[in-house]
Amino acid sequence: MEESSVIVFPSNVKGIVTAPAGKSMMQRVLLLALLHDGKTYISNPGKSDDDMNMARIVESLGAVIDKNSDTWIVTGAGKLKHVDSVNCGESGLALRMTVPVLALGNNEVMVNGSGTLKNRKHQFPTDVFSQLNISLTQSENGLPLFVKGPIKPCDVTIRANESSQYLTGLLFALGASIKEKTTINIVDPVSLPYIELTIQMMRDFGYECECSKRDVIILSPPKDPPKDIVIHIEGDWSGGSFLILAGALSGDLTIWGLYEHSIQADRRILEVLRQTETDFSFEKEKLIIYKNEQIKPFHFDATDCPDLFPALSVLASYAIGKSTIKGVHRLYNKESNRALAIVENLASIGVQICIHDDEMIIEGAGKVSGGVVQSFNDHRIMMAMACAALRAESSIEISNPMCINKSYPNFFTHLRNLGAKFHSTTNLFSS
Fold it and tell me: What digits encode the pLDDT tens for the residues 138-156?
């Protein structure tokens, strides 16, 4: 069967668009709602493939979700329903958060995934798990794996230099099982904003979370948790970064749903906009981004916000001069080898790019040529290349555009409504 593709033509974009719902927030809320003994009302729910997959997981574990309106109502189980297996689809976040939570039960559960998730490395903190009476058995290829509890809480020290997502799942499991104050010491944490997001959301659900330092979290049993919880899912700065990129390259855009003072890690793209002298402004919860005709080069450390790499690498390609983006080591275990994907694609459309140690170095010439690139079945690579085409010298053809459904199913619908022109061999528009 011939692989699908999309051809994106140079286009001017302009108008108003709403950022997709925050995937990191949505998946955390669903898992917390499962463990909550009561109802959770979720406004602006996310409906990407990853979000819907997490919804299926929590339903299989005992939650009941009413999805019949703009506000989802989740009736939590308060505890886990007995299951023999769970499938996390292609979501690494779902896998890393769910595995420790499954240890709240006392039966062995097989955890599997599909697609790109089966090709990724999954390095759970097994030393910490063993201290907590969590048994984890992984197959040679990583998935499927088998987890068994019941978890027995105690003070632990966890190394979080690979990902904050393992820590998030562990905090959820400990919060739901502790009977007394418990201390979690964190060594070499990365993606601190995501840890802060986890703590904020646990507090929304009544958990007692104390942060005496950036690397110490103290959990206490919840005191009189609320029965009903109302959560609004912010717009996603990760998905929104591509709308910001489209505006900076190709036209003035108003983007609803991005909170100026959000703690989401990818909000730091604003620092890059300032360096590139791209004009923007905020009005309540909308960001107005203005086209930048002369993009300045920039230097940025993306170690704590690696999802910005695809958008920032394209922005750097249109600058005049050398830009550097630090944190390349965070790219190798994503939906693709994202460092390789960025370098191959940008080089194929005439960009001078290389990796030295932990830095991506891009010699921007103020323009890129057209050509043929690969999505590498990676939603963020796909969206970055589509935005790159908006200001290119000629069209760019990109393989497998439907991989956007993982995080932003309305991406091409939104681009079309803003004036972008493209042709595809498949239906790109979500219903």
Answer: 877 779 999 999 999 999 9
Within a 10 A sphere around the Cβ of 355, how many other Cβ atoms?
15
Is residue 166 included in any domain, yes or no? Answer: yes
Chain mean position to CA 195: 13
Judgement on whether residues 194 and 303 belong to the same structural domain of the protein: no
- Looking at 198, 220, 242, which one is the last position of a domain? 220
Using the predicted structure, report yes or no on whether residue 20 has a pLDDT greater than 60. Answer: yes
Domain that residue 189 falls in:
23-220
9 and 86, same domain (yes or no)? no
User: Any residues with CB less than 8 A from the CB of 324 and at least 6 apart, and which?
Assistant: 299, 300, 359, 360, 361, 362
The predicted model scores a pTM of: 0.92
d(CA 165, CA 3): 33
Q: pLDDT of 276-329, one tens digit each? A: 999 999 988 899 999 999 999 999 999 999 999 999 999 999 999 999 999 999
Q: Per-residue pLDDT for 431 more than 70?
A: no
Taking residue 42's Cβ as centre, other Cβ atoms within 10 Å add up to 24
pLDDT in tens, 77-123: 888 999 999 999 999 899 999 999 999 998 999 999 998 888 788 88
Predicted confidence at residue 153, as pLDDT, reads 93
244, amino acid identity: I
> Which helix H or strand E contains 275, and what residues bound it?
helix 269-275
Q: How many structural domains is the chain composed of? A: 2
DSSP 68: S
- CATH of residue 379's domain is 3.65.10.10
Same domain, 62 and 100: yes
Strands 182-187 and 216-220: antiparallel
Could you say which DSSP state residue 81 is in? P
Concatenating the DSSP letter of every residue in 225-263 gives --SEEEEEPPB-HHHHHHHHHHHHHH--EEEET--TT--
Give the residues across from 320 on adjacent strands. Answer: 365
